[in-house]
Design brief:
single chain, about 450 residues, alpha/beta, Rossmann fold, 2 domains, 7-stranded mixed sheet, 5-stranded mixed sheet, 12 strands, about 45% helix, binds nicotinamide-adenine-dinucleotide
């Protein structure tokens, strides 16, 4: 994402909030307040690299809102991350958590760094950071933001290029700082961060939570629209955590026909349907398929990721890879009844309007992919209560949150006669505004 696209993302989100505020008649001071972040921290710190040189890193932590509970949101490690992007992502979290009905606010963090030695980085060396460098950088970043995070203040999580191992270092360093400050013996403070490995404070059910949530919202929307999902045709962009698991859910639960999927290298099409389990095996088979891509899957035809994939006639299109793929250019060409968004920010505001006019039902990302943060909230709640829930319990609670969130958005859609893209903000802004007013 470029500096400008971070700004554009933020401007789009603020436009959505202002529109929603107009529908519900928010006071002007509330509109001013919610279109800014509550707190923004920009830190700079040195880290000794393996070759003995010292590198300076710029990093951020933004707390968009703590009105409904501690700020919640991931930490992104990327050479192109910037303050606008972090602010936009933090804002997205505020309204997603509110819509999902979980007692958390919105936050996000980022370090400008190049952990993978990305060849697209114009200032990079192409060399990945070592495990030791990543650990030293993570621990120093934790010290730089320690004053504003904590289980009851702000709870980070993984995001792009940040793993459960990185969350474990963050939790360990934070626990050390608290022990140093209080003089108490060292005790792991699991609740300071989510996305930890299962067995080290992580929750069962987190891995497939985003996809499961997409499935539940699709099921509810299809019921309301009177569209039978049994045997429905599905097109999925992005065959990673969200997209692949979503493809498996609809394949198993609806006996859907998965007619096209794609990843960063391209897409595949098969009119009679692909088995997502076999496609997964193919993608991971380093001997038969050194490409590590869905491309060339036996029995399928290779297609392009946007022009071909997006225009295939299907019942459901699931963008589950990138931001900004449904635009005023691509959206007129889509040929589907429902769009269910695994990706954040998949649809621009103009594209939302085009879908509404064309009668394509959109389930926006802040609703459809809210299952991920909901189970992160469950992880945090289990940590605070020193409990460990079974996967069944997690799944049942998740289903209730997804169905309630869908219903809240649907009620707003009906009440104000607005698009689903506007309705998710009306429902969530109302909740955030009420929480702010209660604290006056
Ligand atoms: P992932 O890294 O597991 O998978 C991403 C997939 O997208 C990969 O298969 C990758 O090859 C593919 N991809 C990358 N560039 C592509 C392109 N140009 N065209 C098509 N495919 C491309 O990531 P994920 O966790 O599945 O996340 C996907 C999206 O869902 C992101 O926008 C993320 O922010 C959002 N999301 C994920 C979660 C979660 O819990 N995983 C939660 C909320 C939102």
């Amino acid at each position: 994402m470029t500096k400008n696209s971070g700004k554009e993302y933020l401007n789009n989100l603020n436009a959505n909030l202002i529109k929603a505020a107009g529908h519900i008649g928010l006071d002007p001071w509330l509109v001013d307040y919610i279109t800014e972040a509550e707190r923004e921290l920009h830190v700079k710190f040195p880290v000794k690299m393996d070759d003995g040189n010292v590198q300076l890193f710029n990093a951020f932590r933004v707390q968009d809102s703590t009105a409904r509970g501690p700020a919640k949101g991931g930490i992104r490690y990327h050479w192109n991350v910037n303050q606008y992007e972090v602010k936009a992502l933090a804002k997205d979290m505020t309204y997603k958590c509110a819509l999902m009905g979980i007692p958390l606010g919105g936050g996000k963090g980022g370090i400008i760094c190049d952990p993978k030695g990305d060849p697209n980085n114009p200032n990079g060396t192409g060399k990945p950071m070592s495990e030791c460098e990543l650990e030293r950088m993570t621990r120093t970043y934790t010290r730089s933001i320690a004053q504003i995070i904590g289980p009851l203040r702000d709870v980070p999580a993984p995001d792009m290029n940040t793993t459960p191992q990185i969350m474990d270092w963050l939790m360990d360093e934070y626990s050390k700082i608290i022990s140093e400050e209080t003089g108490q013996p060292f005790k792991k403070i699991y609740g300071v961060v989510t996305g930890k490995p299962v067995g080290r404070g992580g929750s069962l059910g987190r891995g497939r939570a985003t996809a499961r949530g997409m499935f539940f919202t699709l099921r509810e929307a299809a019921k309301d629209l009177g569209i039978d999902m049994y045997g429905s045709t599905q097109v999925v962009q992005g065959f990673g955590n969200a997209g692949m698991n979503y493809a498996k859910f609809v394949f198993d639960e609806f006996q859907s026909k998965l007619i096209a999927v794609s990843d960063s290298k391209g897409g595949i099409y098969c009119a009679t349907g692909l088995d997502p389990y076999e496609v997964e095996e193919w993608k991971n088979d380093a001997i038969k398929n050194p490409n590590k891509s869905v491309l060339n899957f036996p029995g399928s035809t290779n297609i392009t990721n946007v022009d071909d994939l997006m225009s295939i006639q299907c019942d459901v299109l699931a963008p589950a890879a990138l931001e900004g793929v449904l635009t005023n250019i691509t959206t007129p060409k889509i040929n589907t009844k429902i769009v269910v968004e695994g990706a954040n920010g998949a649809t621009t505001n103009e594209a939302d309007e085009i879908m509404y006019q064309r009668g394509i039902y959109r389930i926006p990302g802040i609703l459809a992919n809210g299952g991920g943060v909901t189970v992160s909230c469950f992880e945090w709640q289990q940590n605070l209560a020193e409990e460990s829930w079974s996967e069944d319990e997690v799944d049942q609670k998740l289903e209730k949150h997804m169905v309630d969130a869908y219903r809240a958005a649907k009620d707003a859609e009906t009440k104000y006669n607005i698009s689903p893209g506007d309705a998710v903000y009306v429902a969530s802004v109302d909740r955030v505004a009420k929480a702010i007013e209660k604290r006056l």
